[in-house]
Amino acid sequence: MAKKIIIDEDLCEGCETCVELCPDVFELGENGKARVKNPNALNTCNIQEAIDSCPTGALKLEE
Ligand code: SF4
């Protein structure tokens, strides 16, 4: 099963760390929160590092 990245928008504070680490996966939406740009690009970056680097723990990987 493909893994899926989940963003908890209530927790996201728009710091853009995940966007910097995984620019193919994440982008910042008009609401100032991260959103998934391409769910199929998880292998283009270190997604675990992005998850671990999120200051609010807003990112989760779902199997
Ligand atoms: S690293 Fe976390 S808080 Fe920062 S923009 Fe990404 S999801 Fe939001």
User: Helix count, per DSSP?
Assistant: 2
CATH top level label: Alpha Beta
Might you state the CATH topology name?
Alpha-Beta Plaits
Instruction: Kindly estimate the percentage of residues that lie in beta strands according to DSSP.
Output: 15-25%
Largest sheet: 2 strands, antiparallel
Order of helices and strands: EHEEHE
- What number of structural domains do the residues give? 1
Shape: globular
Attached small molecules: iron/sulfur cluster
Number of strands: 4
Helicity, as a percent range: 10-25%
- By helix and strand content, what is the structural category? alpha+beta
CATH structural architecture: 2-Layer Sandwich
Low-confidence stretches: none
What does this entry look like structurally?
By secondary structure, this protein is of the alpha+beta class. It has one domain (4-62): Alpha-Beta Plaits (2-Layer Sandwich), CATH 3.30.70.20. Helix content is 19%, strand content 22%. The protein is built from two helices and four strands; from the N terminus they run βαββαβ. The strands form two sheets. Strands 1-4 form a two-stranded antiparallel sheet. A two-stranded antiparallel sheet has the order 2-3. β2 (26-28) and β3 form a beta hairpin. The longest helix is centred in the last third of the chain and has 7 residues, at 47-53. The protein is globular and about 30 Å long. The mean pLDDT is 96. The chain binds iron/sulfur cluster. The site of iron/sulfur cluster has 14 residues, from α1.
